[in-house]
Amino acid sequence: MRIRFVLPMLALVAGLGTVVATPAAADPGPVTAGDVAAADACYSWGRSLSQGASGEDVRQLQIRVAGYPGYGGVLAIDGQFGAGTKAAVTRFQQAYGLGADGVAGPATFSKLYALQDDDCSPVNFTYGELNRCNSDWSGGNVSAATAKANALVSMWKLQAMRHAMGDRPIVVNGGFRSVACNNAVGGATGSRHLYGDAVDLGAGAQGFCGLARQARNHGFSEILGPGYPGHDDHTHVAHRSGRLWSASSCGI
Ligand SMILES: [Zn+2]
To answer: Is 231 in the active site?
Structure first.
């Protein structure tokens, strides 16, 4: 989000009695897509993206629409804008009432800017709650950078899930674990918590089964909940190769 830019700006123009979001004092012209992009502290897209495009900007888009692959789907974060990415962008646009053409342009980017914090995490989730083990993401089964990057994708999936469930808070009890943290809590060998993409969810307003069922729509290939050994008191969502969904008490 561009809070740091917008708040002083609005305060300034509000005093003049007209709320016009000017991008900078030196440039009083109308806001364009480029201005909005330039104002985002995390990441800014410089072109519209549609099927056939490729590159880092596509990969950045894929991270943010990873929660929109459709039931049972997992969107590849590969920098190639294929049919799956188009479908995910379309679902994202539909979810927020935007023109749903599967092309990521200014309106789509503006919504994404509004949904992300300066550290690129979605506004309703934080790296801190995804890692209650240590502060530097080290000691897992992947590099610290990979673990943190995996957690970011999971946060965007959770943001999609949260929106689909009425924008009520989702309770996060933890995520990444180093080997030491995993051993300390008796985690399974090879647990996805060691890779940074697993998240343990509290019941919240949605309930464990509500979360587990909904997670099937948002790119989580691993869902473990009530009825699965050790998971009667939380719902675990993660990424893995292949699918493992098990929450027998929820009919999953
Ligand atoms: Zn877990």
So the answer is: yes
